UniProtKB/TrEMBL annotation, chains A, B:
The lineage of its organism: Bacteria, Pseudomonadati, Pseudomonadota, Gammaproteobacteria, Enterobacterales. Residues 190-258 form the Phosphogluconate dehydrogenase NAD-binding putative C-terminal domain. It comes from the Bacteria. This is DUF1932 domain-containing protein. Residues 6-122 form the 6-phosphogluconate dehydrogenase NADP-binding domain. It comes from Candidatus Pantoea formicae. Keywords: Oxidoreductase.
Length: 285, 285
């Protein structure tokens, strides 16, 4: 029986663990330090509580964390991995830049533990995404992870080094979230000078697919703008200075912070965006 | 008979003049200083050559110029308009920011000539756009321009001040061109670390409409990157500092310049983009 350790059973980690367990894997996590909600979620997903040292006995460790914890958790686990007699394959699945990924890889590989890079693209498996997200793996040990498809995951193996899966995730998020932010900023600018109705009508005529995409993506983005800011900062570091992508994503990160601030205070930006997408509601009110 | 003056019979101006002439308007332009190509194009469109002073006798002057000429042409025409006994309606149709538009408006209105703001959205009328582009008008004199629909133009009148049509044009271009540039930059970044095939496959699965849009828009953009750079700089000035849109479009302008430079020199960026959209051609070559 295959044993897979999950760090940590958040919304994505628990749902992924649940799929693996349903398909017959033994799924473990260290839950003693976790919130009651996380413990209940893990229990519901048939994830077995173990101590941290036991995580190292798994065949595979999937690190699925808030991006800012990816490196610190690797550093925390390093001594345990160092002293483990049989090393698991450590897979970093987090939304971090290739630079950060390489730091994590160095920490883990230094303990003699094999390492792979992964990108999870899509929503957690469940009601809103029955097929589940796609797992992309890169690095010298990526090929072994193809077997995870036997345990219910949608797996793609990249013929590329560590860092490539992280770059994929960054580029994909950079495109999709970047479009939402850039478009929202332009809608706000147009609305402030009385051009909202015209821009909506023009887009209805000549950019219908994009307008529909925005009508869904913009309201979804606003409550997450703070979290997106950190992600834009990370994407800014994807580029090593030859293209101005760094400045582009720094500006998008700044726009995230401005939208988040606005939402907590006078809401002028969020009001303009709401009126753009719901002109009738606006006129009725 | 309605007389409409066009400055200048470039690709857009001549095609618009041709539509007006076909619908029975008398269309005039000052051609003596223009290239032989422009003169031939004007002649083919049934545009009548007059001297610059005679332009002021038109009912309407449509300024359709490269954006950087919008203000200087207004300044050049101001003394002639000043001394004209009957003033035409001067319509600035150029892709300029609301700030620049207001400078043009001040120059023209100072001569006692009524002024309107316009945005032309879409390709010139002709083979590739049989319906023709849409003309959006704003400002206190915009309503009079509704009659241009009798002369074959697709007209929309905005209930908004001078500057609003310019802002509409900027926002629309900012969204469409911004998406193309941002996405191209991310495709280049992903391709440089071996993630191109994965990103294409992922987008084919989850972002098909966007991928199709990019496959057309990116190659179309590359030869125009120099011209787009100036437009991005203009869009950057749309914002007056409350949102970081200025920094966002400054970065996009910089990316335009980098793509244009690359295309003239080592072509590493354009080669990566070509390979992204034509992977089979790349492998065959």
């Amino acid at each position: 029986m295959k044993t897979i350790a999950i760090a940590a059973p958040g919304a994505m980690g628990a749902a992924v663990g649940g799929v693996l367990a349903q398909h017959g894997a033994r799924v473990i996590a260290a839950l003693s330090q976790r919130s009651v909600i996380s413990q209940q979620r893990a229990q519901a997903a048939k994830i077995v509580d173990v101590d941290e040292k036991t995580l190292c006995e798994a065949d595979i460790i999937l690190s699925i964390l808030p991006p800012e914890s990816a490196l610190s958790w690797a550093q925390h686990m390093a001594p345990l991995l160092q002293s483990a007699p049989k090393k698991p394959l450590y897979v970093d699945c987090n939304a971090i830049s290739p630079e950060t990924l390489k730091q994590v890889a160095r920490v883990i590989e230094h303990t003699g533990t094999p390492f792979a890079d992964a990108a999870i693209i899509g929503l957690p498996p469940g009601e809103h995404n029955p097929q589940g997200p796609r797992f992309w793996f890169s690095g010298p040990h990526a090929a072994q992870l193809a077997t995870l498809s036997d345990w219910g995951l949608r797996v793609r193996v990249m013929d590329a080094e560590n860092g490539a899966a992280s770059a994929l995730k960054m580029a994909y998020a950079g495109i999709n979230k970047g479009i939402t932010l850039l478009t929202s900023a332009m809608l706000i600018n147009a609305s402030r000078v009385g051009a909202a109705d015209a821009l909506r009508e023009e887009m209805q005529e000549s950019q219908q697919a994009l307008l529909q995409r925005m009508a869904k993506a913009t309201p979804d983005m606003l409550p997450k703008a703070w979290r997106w800011a950190a992600e834009m900062d990370e994407i800014a570091s994807l580029n090593q200075g030859e293209l101005a992508t760094d400045r582009l994503y720094q500006a998008l990160g700044e726009i995230c912070r401005q939208l988040a601030e606005d939402r907590q205070h006078d809401q002028q930006f969020s009001t303009l965006l709401a009126a753009f997408f719901q002109p009738e509601a606006d006129k009725a009110g």
